[in-house]
Structures
1.
Amino acid sequence: MTKADLEALRREVSRLERGSSPVVSGRFSTGSASLDGVLQGGLMRGALHEIFAAGTAAEPSASGFAVALAVRASEARPLVWVRQDFAGIEAGEIYAPGLAELGLSPDRVILVRARDGPAVLRAGEEAARCPPLGAVIIEPWGAPKALDLVASRRLALAAARSNVPLFMVRAGAEPEPSAALTRWRVRAALSAAMEADAPGRPAFDVELLRDRAGAGGRNWIVEWDRDQHIFKDIPALSGGMVSLPAGGSHHARHARRAV
């Protein structure tokens, strides 16, 4: 991100501040009764939340989980997504029809491309200061040296002052001390096919690694309902699971997909 890019972001932030008013609220619900129960009603708005991909291949799932949370929190307001260029090289670029499938209209997204981790942090902090935004997603790749405890505190403070939730997607990195209020690890989960063998809803295996309110070490399987904009609990499987041969019969493949 160049100085000109950062200045353009500042102008866009100023425009949003003039054109709308913030929604002030302490928490927003995820829609999942089990998640909300542990989170004391939902996630805090004015806070930094870290979402770790459970391996590089899980980056799309971590990003999808962050987008779904941002949709829940934003209440139809604009979102800013600051993404390091290398994330696009390693995990693929953002796909507008995919955002629409998650219930997020692409025209609500202000996408900021950043060349490195420090640029992601600068732009993310600038965006998080804008109260009219519905949410901010930042995606540095790996573990940039600039992302230390002090930098995370700056991000958390910006989110707290504006009451804008800030979701930091982490891929190619391991958890380290930070000022994040909650920390998650996310991977894809198997979804159940819908009627007429249509593809199922996006499903996530989410683990709450840390919650400064005290609830941590919990795991859920949830699916995202794009029409209602809520997470729904997926009941745990009962009974044993039968190993299925790779490339098996049509019935075997159908059973595997349903599981």
2.
Amino acid sequence: MKKYTIITIITIGIILGFLTGIYLYRINKISKEQKIYMAEKVEDECTAIGELDNEDIASLITTNNDEEKTSPNCVITLKVYHEACKHLIENRQSIEEAEVNMTEEELKERFSDWEVQKFTPTEIVLYKEVDEFCDEHYLLKEEDGYITIYKLDENENAEFFNTTEISTEYLAEEDLEQIKNGIKVYTDKELNKTLEDFE
């Protein structure tokens, strides 16, 4: 019985030794093949770069840089300063499909008459000055018991714009007096805020 056990242990040891040898041989062979492949790859890349001129190398380096690009959920704020009335009008809008995945340089080319004040993948701020009167000048007046909105041009000429559903019947006497005399409001944001105050 002891003889049989010893023979079994020796046989198992030989088999394990043989399998270990095969395993180590294959790992060593794969490692050598990988080293040869990597050496060939590096040599190929170095040779390819060596054949490039300075402009091509500069282009390659620029292309490999991780430049920030606009994302699909980016928001653009357009700031326009109107010299004629000294008002800064801001409009926020979602990015257009054609502007997604743009670098700052590409955006500057697309909006060449704008100054880029901020550029991140999720937010862009563009600014420009124009020698124009902005179209966000309003006059609020009482008409037929309701607050009516007129647009004002640069000569203070009033043009009917809209009649609100805000009745002047329940306004405080001071507010009613102001509305009868006319209240000038600038920018859409200020218009909405003033109307909310009267509701």
3.
Amino acid sequence: MDGKIAELEAILYASGRPVTLTNLVAHLRLNHEMEVSNLIVKLSEAYERDGSPLEVSEVAGDRVVLQLKPDYNKQAKKFSIKPLLTKGPLRTLSYVAYNQPVEQKQVSEARGSQAYKHLRTLEKMGLISRKKQGRMTIINTTADFADYLGLSTDRTSMRRQLRSIFRRLEVKELK
């Protein structure tokens, strides 16, 4: 059993994003999702018992992710090798997230000529998807976007959460 827990930890660590229980069953060569759930509980308990800064968290769609506990985010950001979004792409992403589904042309009109470059970057990062519909290109955020920012995948809830974030940012900027 300890070997399977170590394999689970390795898979979650290497993936860097949420993994479905079904995928974990297959990769760990188990018979049922309940077995994976038991391993997840044991791994979580080990992290808790050891006072680890890591945690295994469940996200929508029967997926789990190995992540840093929020209390350690500030310290870890200084050393992160993940590509951080600069202000321009982040604002473009915010525009897309709030107005989705949105036509690419609208994004460009609202965000300027650099928007196309931002959109390519965001698509490579897996935060948005672009689909052709006739002569238009429609842009939406992905499930990875919601996971990345800890937002709901439900569009209505996501908009409400984004409004709250934007309000807090405006207040900070005014101070």
4.
Amino acid sequence: MSTLTVIEYVSVDGVAQAPGHAGEDTDGGFAHGGWAGPQLADHREYGTTLYQNAGAFIFGRRTYELWQPHWSAVTDPGDRIAAALNDRPKHVVSTTLTEVT
């Protein structure tokens, strides 16, 4: 049996949209992107370990479409999060996505 670790970005008031930066996801007129910014140093510290220990990743369509252009462009071998994302299998759960890169 394998272990499934879930990483969920959500604020106390239930917002999960656009934690990373202001222009990340403006769907529905959302104007509060980047709300997780003050905690991103913690994300890198703990995320590095979590991502390095993962055997594969499961994404929803929207997260995959937002993240894929970023991690695939990172070539710094010292960025262990991007390295893990580039090196391991990714599975996208979607009923609308017909093709992934």
